[in-house]
């Protein structure tokens, strides 16, 4: 253990795996290879040999390149650099955009099948098509220029940059091609910020770009989605791609089956943030909508209450989803009945909702769920568990909300059988 770090292996790269790494084999051992493309032959340098059955390695030379390889969109993350000097956060930047999406589709389909037990036929029924396609958002053809929020970390000398992949080593950079032009212009890349932990650069859709230096006091910003405006803390959560909020709004509105929807039921927006998806339902189903947005961050909940004020039946609650659902399970018979006819939107963080939440939802038996997912394996686990508890995967769409990275977003509807 440790003896093989730095060793260079020539490998044939096989399929893509969760996390954007490719799988290769060498002397009977699995090697997870970064910065390669399935089908390539590369020289990869071992970076982690702690496990007996698999090692991790970084591509240092491409011997036979995939037809889908292109020059990396970000020089700072290029395979030409030493792996320790490569900027993280753009791990698919060396792959043509259309092929990135094909690889993301493969990862999502494999996760649904292997982790969720949702085979190709079941998936085809939900998709209304044979194959899953990852839908692109409007933007540059090379997948740059979309990030409205960037965190820059500070090194010992006060210089700014992203972390290297899988490391806390700051890589000072002189450009940020994945960021919007407004973020790029505002990012103080040449300046020094010694003593600060990080500098966030953000460009909300209303007003000018701004910096948040370290733990600077929060202020309110406005994001516009279609005709609607949302107030939120500049340090709070908001979707990162400049078209993500509008894309998810439309996708959630479309995912809800109107035949199963009752505006007067105890509808829920779980992991609600500042109320984006509750408002999506409100805009689709009108002023009579009853909905509770549940969010663990009290500041976000305050903004959600303000953003949802025009719906008399909307409220925002600060609670962990797990605790909130436990409380509902102890409700009276009429309350339980209002939940059985409800629609629940859930948009959990990367870890997914988890089995406790899935179990609680299954016992409350809402009519339909709209699951917005940012991690394929966590989503597949939860979708599989929901199927076992009587929910049919009724529709699934997926979106390239994070071009040039391995991340992919899915919006699924699950209907009680
Ligand atoms: C992916 S964001 C979605 C926010 C919102 N739906 C949106 O699109 O803007 C997930 C949100 O869940 C919140 N969160 C994380 N874990 C939670 C939990 N266990 N219970 C309630 N909220 C949680 C986070 O603070 C964050 O605002």
Automatic annotation (TrEMBL):
Residues 2-61 form the TRAM domain. The active site is at 374 (nucleophile). S-adenosyl-L-methionine binds at residues 239, 271, 295, 347. Keywords: Methyltransferase, S-adenosyl-L-methionine, Transferase. This is Class I SAM-dependent RNA methyltransferase. Belongs to the class I-like SAM-binding methyltransferase superfamily. RNA M5U methyltransferase family. Coiled coil: none annotated. The lineage of its organism: Bacteria, Bacillati, Actinomycetota, Actinomycetes, Micrococcales. One of its GO terms (molecular function) is rRNA (uridine-C5-)-methyltransferase activity. The keyword Lipid biosynthesis does not apply. Transmembrane segments: none annotated. GO terms for biological process: rRNA base methylation. InterPro entries: NA-bd_OB-fold (IPR012340), SAM-dependent_MTases_sf (IPR029063), TRAM_dom (IPR002792), U5_MeTrfase_fam (IPR010280). The keyword S-adenosyl-L-methionine applies.
């Amino acid at each position: 253990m440790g003896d093989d770090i730095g060793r260079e292996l020539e490998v044939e790269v096989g399929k893509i795996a969760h996390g954007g790494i490719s799988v290769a084999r060498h002397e009977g051992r699995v090697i997870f290879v970064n910065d390669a493309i399935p089908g390539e032959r590369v020289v990869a340098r071992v970076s982690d040999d702690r496990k007996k059955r698999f090692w991790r390695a970084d591509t240092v030379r491409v011997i036979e390149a995939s037809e889908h390889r292109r020059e990396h969109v970000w020089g700072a993350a290029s395979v030409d650099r030493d792996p320790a000097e490569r900027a993280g956060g753009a791990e698919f930047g060396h792959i043509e955009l259309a092929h990135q999406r094909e690889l993301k589709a493969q990862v999502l389909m494999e996760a649904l099948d292997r982790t969720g037990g949702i085979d190709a036929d079941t998936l085809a029924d939900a998709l209304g098509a044979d194959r899953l396609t990852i839908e692109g958002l409007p933007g540059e053809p090379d997948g740059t220029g979309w990030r409205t929020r960037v965190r820059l970390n500070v090194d010992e000398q006060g210089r700014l940059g992203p972390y290297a992949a899988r490391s806390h080593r700051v890589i000072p950079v002189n450009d940020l091609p994945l960021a919007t032009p407004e973020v790029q212009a505002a990012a103080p890349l040449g300046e020094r910020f010694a003593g600060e932990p990080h500098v966030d650069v953000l460009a909300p859709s209303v007003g000018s770009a701004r910096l948040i230096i370290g733990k600077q006091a929060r202020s309110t910003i406005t994001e516009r989605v279609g005709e609607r405006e949302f107030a939120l803390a500049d340090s709070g959560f908001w979707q990162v791609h400049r078209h993500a909020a509008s894309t998810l709004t439309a996708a959630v509105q479309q995912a809800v089956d109107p035949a199963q929807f009752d505006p007067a039921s105890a509808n829920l927006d779980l992991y609600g943030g500042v109320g984006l998806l509750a408002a999506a339902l409100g805009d689709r189903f009108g002023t009579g909508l009853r909905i509770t947005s549940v969010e663990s961050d009290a500041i976000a909940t305050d903004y959600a209450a303000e953003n949802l004020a025009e719906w008399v039946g909307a409220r925002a609650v600060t609670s962990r989803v797990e605790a909130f659902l436990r409380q509902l399970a102890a409700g009276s018979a009429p309350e339980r009945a209002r939940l059985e006819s409800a629609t629940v939107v859930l948009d959990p963080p990367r870890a997914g909702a988890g089995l406790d939440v899935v179990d609680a939802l299954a016992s409350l038996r809402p009519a339909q769920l709209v699951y917005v997912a940012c991690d394929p394996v966590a989503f597949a686990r939860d979708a599989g568990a929901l199927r076992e508890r009587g929910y049919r995967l009724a529709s699934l769409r997926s979106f390239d909300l994070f071009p040039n990275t391995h991340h992919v977003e899915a919006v699924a509807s699950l209907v009680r059988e």
